[in-house]
Design goal:
heterodimer, A: alpha/beta, D-Maltodextrin-Binding Protein, domain 2, six-stranded mixed beta sheet, five-stranded mixed beta sheet, 19 helices, B: mainly alpha, MetI-like fold, two-stranded antiparallel sheet, 13 helices, flat
Chain lengths: 429, 304
């Protein structure tokens, strides 16, 4: 008897579990509008308000589509993780922001539809929109290693050097800031001596974007033919400059990203190397004479700056949602929306005709000198290195671990870079 | 047909039993779905190489366990886990015990105020708490750094320094756990017969003896509960500040087993490794629990 009962209970349980697994999500349509989800990474301090505004305006003017914006913490990596979790559960949003460094990972692991395909099928009037409005080298940023157009560039950013002119003047330095990395080091020393404040903060978020800018500007290559090659002579020299400033000169801070930017804003550190996307946060909150200057170069070399930011990709599973997705995207890519996006975030517009358009950013750029640095250095933009294959994320993580070890002084730059390069190449095999 | 009637006959005989099982079913289902099933699935996953998204999983036998156990990182993280346990026990079990004793037995005034003041932080989300403390404890420009600066002192760069990072994260976690543990212990101490305490007072028993020899044994049933819940729960609560502030860094110095299992699964997508770490964690905790039953449980005083 007992056995019987146990068996029935077990059966009931399995049935119940099976039932739990089989409810799948479809596209919800309420009052005739197609509801789609738009996933973004913009916290309140990084353009979240603009996202909200754009989505609200879009919903108000559209009779066919209702967009729900969903914020994903922890930047593009966090969004990838949530997308992974949702895909495992059989769901998918319609439009997602994909960070450049996840381009290959995204196209290898998720199902998406090329925007041009959706346009060709449903919006013949937009047929040449992407060719006409975007520069070819910008569109190339959104192509994966097989040359497929995965998405459309949306947010473009480059690292710039924010300077506190008050501190520079107090220390008797050029108030236009340093032009080269060698000067950054010298400036920081003088600032420390003259004012007692920290000279420099190099951003430390959970990615290696700024590190790539530092190393590649000196002639190193993060990835060559699918292999990690950052531990070259130039790479080591570049990383050593940063490590020396933190460890030897003690003129640069080694703290978390939020804390670092906060310290720049309240005037405890004179210069901060971080993304132009922090521009409105810094501009709104800094109580001193603040400026943004172009990313420093290395003596006699041209800077190479990885494009930060993201593209928009369409992950909607069915045609109805795909159609809705492009309708929403074409709204986001209008000159007015692009201009709002730039004003709210500090991202450089990917469309070629926004900066000069009257209804775009013409007057805005004339008034906002801080943006000029980012717009001017667009010619030095290269793609954000993204390690290929399944181990890409692990490789990225190894570089982050290395940053901690180098900057706390537990490993020398040369040893650490070489060792990590070997480890990554082993992983990538 | 005959078998069916046979079953029905037996069923009638054991009606009392069946009724009991029937009442158990709801909780068994809940347990099965949220505890047993995930556990079994974790065991299953620990034998596979999988990235959570790819449709096929590759069977690798014990390789995940071998890789985890031969990784020096794992041992650092186990070490961190025990350091967290020791610190959290001190902050969230020993200290609230003493506070509860002092407020209930020693202090005569403002008891109500202390009680609510101690409990209040438990209402606030740890995420909010973490962000708040990141700002307050910013070693360069946070308010505390400024106050310390006036005194000529410096705050250690805790988010990036081994050791310090665990201490500060434990303190931030206590923001959430302290108040709850405090209230539990307070209630228990409050329930001890006043006559015992008063007569001890009349005999001029010093406070430390009153605490160690009367209060501690008589409230030990709650004490052991708080002791265990501190170990189990706070290790999970630590997860929040680790995730918000350090993401396990610098170089895994603030990671514990629970965060690392998350990190392997949801940051680098090695579900096999993550599952193996989870199983190892469970084994460790089973040993701890066994020791607890063997060594501590006997000396506990249960009133009823």
């Amino acid at each position: 008897m007992r056995k019987m009962l146990r068996a029935t209970l077990f059966l009931a349980l399995i049935l119940l579990l099976a039932a739990c697994n089989s409810n799948d999500a479809g596209s919800a349509t309420t009052d005739g509008k197609t509801t789609i989800e738009y996933w973004h990474v913009n916290a309140e301090t990084q353009g979240g308000q603009t996202v909200k505004q754009l989505v609200e305006d879009f919903n108000a003017q559209s009779d066919t589509v209702e967009v729900v914006a969903k914020y994903n913490p922890d930047m593009y990596k966090g969004l990838m993780q949530n997308l992974q979790a949702d895909a495992a559960a059989g769901n998918a949003p319609a439009v997602v922001q994909v960070g450049w460094s996840f381009l290959n990972y995204f196209s290898d692991n998720f199902s998406y539809v090329s925007p041009q395909k959706v346009i060709d099928e449903h919006f013949p009037e937009d047929k040449t929109f992407l060719q006409d409005k975007f520069l070819p080298n910008i569109m190339d940023l959104a192509k994966n290693s097989d040359g497929e157009q995965v998405g459309v560039p949306y947010s473009l950013s480059t690292p710039v050097l924010y300077i506190n002119r008050d501190i520079l003047r107090e220390a008797g330095l050029d108030e236009n800031g340093p032009q080269t990395w060698e000067e950054v080091k010298e400036f920081s020393k003088v600032i420390k001596e003259e004012t007692g404040k920290s000279g420099f903060y190099f951003q430390e978020p959970a990615d290696n974007w700024a590190t790539q800018a530092l190393l590649e500007s000196n002639g190193a290559q993060f990835i060559t033919d699918g292999k990690a090659t950052f531990a070259s002579e130039e790479g080591i020299e570049a990383y050593e400059l940063l490590a020396d400033m933190v460890l030897e000169d003690e003129t640069a801070l080694h703290i978390g990203w939020d804390q670092g930017v906060q310290s720049f804003i309240d005037g405890s550190v004179a210069m901060a190397y971080t993304t132009i996307a922090q521009r409105s946060n810094i501009q709104d909150n800094a109580q001193f004479d603040v400026a943004a200057v172009k990313s420093p170069a290395w003596e006699g070399k041209d800077p190479k700056l990885p494009a930060g930011g993201s593209m928009l990709a369409i992950t909607a599973p069915n045609e109805e949602e795909q159609k809705a997705a492009w309708e929403f995207m074409s709204y986001l890519y209008s000159i007015e929306s692009m201009a709002d996006w730039t004003k709210g975030t500090g991202y450089v517009p990917p469309r070629n005709d926004v900066a000069d358009a009257e209804n775009g950013l013409k007057t805005y750029l004339e008034e906002n000198e801080m943006m000029t640095a980012a717009v001017e250095q667009m010619d030095g933009v290269v793609s954000w290195a993204s390690f290929p294959g399944d181990s890409g994320l692990q490789a990225e993580q190894l570089l982050l671990d290395l940053r901690d070890r180098i900057l706390e002084g537990s490993v020398t730059v040369e040893e650490g870079l070489t060792e990590t390069e070997d480890k990554i190449n082993e992983l990538l095999q | 047909m005959s078998t069916l009637t046979g079953i029905w006959g037996k069923f009638n005989k054991n009606r009392g039993n069946a009724f009991g099982y029937g009442l158990l079913i709801p909780s068994i289902i809940v347990f099965a779905i949220f505890t047993f099933w995930p556990f079994l699935y974790t065991v299953y996953l620990s034998f596979f190489d999988w990235n959570m998204i790819s449709p096929e999983k590759e069977f690798v036998g014990l390789r995940n366990y071998m890789e985890v156990l031969s990784d020096s990182k794992t041992y650092r993280i186990i070490g961190n886990t025990f350091l967290y346990i020791v610190l959290l026990l001190a902050i969230n079990c020993v200290v609230p015990y003493i506070f509860a004793f002092v407020i209930d037995v020693v202090l005569k005034r403002f008891n109500g105020f202390y009680k609510s003041a101690m409990f209040l932080p438990a209402f606030i989300s740890l995420v909010v708490g973490s962000i708040l403390f990141t700002w307050i404890l910013n070693p360069v420009s946070g308010p505390l750094a400024i106050i310390f600066g006036w005194l000529g002192l410096e705050i250690p760069n805790w988010t990036k320094t081994q050791g310090w990072v665990i201490l500060v994260l434990s303190l931030i976690t206590s923001w959430k756990v302290f108040g709850y543990n405090f209230i539990l212990l307070y209630a228990s101490i409050n329930g001890i017969s006043r006559e015992v305490i008063e007569s001890a007072r009349l005999d001029n028993v010093p406070l430390w003896r009153l605490f160690l020899q009367i209060i501690l044994p008589m409230s030990s049933a709650t004490g052991i509960y708080v002791f265990i819940i501190t170990i189990v729960q706070s290790l999970q609560y630590v997860f929040t500040p680790v995730k918000v502030i350090t993401q396990g860094g610098p170089d895994y110095a603030s990671s514990n087993l629970i965060y690392h299992a998350y990190h392997e699964a949801f940051v680098v997508y090695r579900t096999g490794h993550s599952a193996a770490i989870s199983i190892i964690t469970m084994a460790l905790f089973l040993i701890l629990l066994f020791l607890e039953f063997k060594l501590v449980e006997r000396g506990i005083y249960y009133e009823n």
